[in-house]
Amino acid sequence: MSTTELQASHAELMDGVYRWQRHIYDLTRKYYLLGRDRLIDELDVPQNGSVLELGCGTGRNIALAARRYRNARFFGLDISAEMLETANAAMAREGLAARVGLARGDATDFDAKALFGVERFDRVFVSYSLSMIPGWEKTVAAALAALAPGGSLHVVDFGQQEGLPRWFRALLRGWLRKFHVMPRDSLRDVLESESKRTGATFRFRTLYRGYAWLAVVGAPK
Ligand SMILES: C[S@@+](CC[C@H](N)C(=O)[O-])C[C@H]1O[C@@H](n2cnc3c(N)ncnc32)[C@H](O)[C@@H]1O
Question: Based on the structure, what is the number of domains in the chain?
Fold first, then answer.
């Protein structure tokens, strides 16, 4: 299969997963996509800064962050047209459409300048999406390449549940598989080695006994 065919079939898969789920997504996910609000709190976006979310889904994070960082411009990329329909409606409903740009694309291979008219961002974040993206390591590299000097990449996702009972881990994994979610066991290593490669700083925390992992990569100035 060619890259374009792979991207098209993954986009179709994501649209299939979210066609109906998107209507109950924000209500249900608030109970188990933990650490998202902490990531938003820590973005600390500079005045008139620019922020890109890769795998923005319903736009829940962008809407919260846009209310919090009122002078910043926000951009969201997602491969699912279904999710983007919900995100666009949310931005219009919340009066944020003028400050938020949303586009359909693949987070492993995108041209931010062509999609948003912006090449580099002060903040890039990826929330519970790397666990759904085939070839997610390319997203990490693309996110770092899209950072402005002194900018930062923030990642939150499922951890390895390393401090939780084995039965809980097995139950969670089985359930996540139904949604094509695969917690990445090498997430920390990949982020750390990409940080080293690009001369960036690296901060990593486990949340809720490894239920979730939170990382911040700080690009050099
Ligand atoms: C679990 S949702 C997370 C949504 C949002 N970031 C949040 O925290 O609620 C994962 C999102 O990643 C998107 N996604 C999956 N693969 C992608 C890819 N290759 N490129 C861009 N988005 C992708 C899905 O369509 C979905 O909206």
Answer: 1
Q: How far is the CA of 30 from the centre of ligand 1 (A)?
A: 15
Atom of ligand 1 nearest to the CA of 156: 8
Closest Cα to atom 13, ligand 1: which residue?
55
User: Each residue of 60-76: pLDDT tens digit?
Assistant: 999 999 999 999 999 99
| Ligand 1: centre distance to CA 221 (Å) | 29
User: Could you list the residue range(s) of the whole structural domain that residue 115 is in?
Assistant: 3-218
Which amino acid residue places its CA nearest to atom 26 of ligand 1? 57
The enclosing domain of 209 has a CATH number of 3.40.50.150
Q: Report if pTM > 0.90.
A: yes
Q: What is the DSSP string of the chain?
A: --HHHHHHHHHHHHHHHHHHHTTTHHHHHTTTSTTHHHHHHTT-PPTT-EEEEES-TTSHHHHHHHHHSTT-EEEEEES-HHHHHHHHHHHHHTT-GGGEEEEE-BTTB--HHHHHS---EEEEEEES-GGG-TTHHHHHHHHHHTEEEEEEEEEEEE---TTS-HHHHHHHHHHHHTTT----TTHHHHHHHHHHHHT-EEEEEEETTTTEEEEEEE---
